[in-house]
Amino acid sequence: MDASPPPSDPPGIFARATDEHPLDRLTYLLPGVSFVGWQPFHTEDPVLVRQELTAYRKLRGRAHSPKQVLENAYLSYLDEFLQTGRTPMPCHALRASCFIDPWGVVYPCITYSKPLGSLRDTGMRLDPIWNAFETARVQREIWDGQCPQCWTACEAYQSILGNVLAGRSASPRAIGLTPPHEQPISPGPAR
């Protein structure tokens, strides 16, 4: 097996990757590495990644379905994450979901490697782990941003929805909608 580092990708790798793989398989994008499914495309230039993201968002255009609205919001906030390295809104990990590995170990999410318990120890029941004092403490950590800071689709989508429903985040423009006061006025019927 060759252990040499992956070659540097030419410009346009993100756009090419998304052409080859539909957005449904686009998992997430992190500074320096963009992932399609579980196949990383390495680039060392975060500016290039952001340029590719901007080009991809323009190609997608306006949302025409609720799913596309959510995807556009994810991509918009992804740009903010790439600039700051911080999750752009309160994360809903352990409020709306958790990650369970193949051995039954429960984690807050796929990124936060803090085991909370094992389903094997609870008769395969999640509620004793979900309702434990330690889980509530980790939930507060996450809510306060004291976690690894990511913007992966697995947590971002429910965070976007949860924050919108709570009235905390997601401007209409960020989720791909034009606010009503900025929509063009059509000239009425011809006379």
Secondary structure layout:
Layout: H1 13-20, E1 28-30, E2 33-36, E3 39-42, H2 46-60, H3 66-84, E4 99-100, E5 105-107, E6 117-118, H4 127-130, H5 133-143, H6 153-165
Antiparallel strand pairs: 1-2, 2-3, 4-5, 5-6
Could you name the key traits of this structure?
three-stranded antiparallel sheet; 6 strands; about 190 residues; 6 helices; alpha+beta
What do these coordinates show?
The protein has helices at residues 13-20, 46-60, 66-84, 127-130, 133-143, 153-165; strands spanning 28-30, 33-36, 39-42, 99-100, 105-107, 117-118. Helices cover 37% and strands 9% of the residues. The protein has a three-stranded antiparallel β-sheet with strand order 1-2-3, covered by helices on one side. A three-stranded antiparallel β-sheet has the order 4-5-6, with no helix packed on it. 26% of the residues are buried. The longest helix has 19 residues, at 66-84. The protein starts with 12 loop residues before the first helix and ends in a 26-residue tail after the last helix. With 191 residues, the chain is of the alpha+beta class.
Indicate the radius of gyration in whole angstroms. Answer: 20 Å
Order of helices and strands: HEEEHHEEEHHH
Please list the strands of the largest sheet in the order they lie side by side. 1-2-3
Structural class call reads: alpha+beta
Portion in beta strands: 5-15%
Which assembly state applies to the chains in this document? single chain
- By DSSP, the count of extended strands is 6
The helix fraction, in percent, is 25-40%
Low-confidence stretches: 4-41, 178-188
For the largest beta-sheet, the strand count, sense and barrel status come to: 3 strands, antiparallel
- Give the distance, in angstroms, between the N- and C-terminal Cα atoms: 75 Å
Count of DSSP-assigned helices = 6
Q: Give the overall shape.
A: elongated
> What is the residue-mean pLDDT, rounded to a whole number?
76
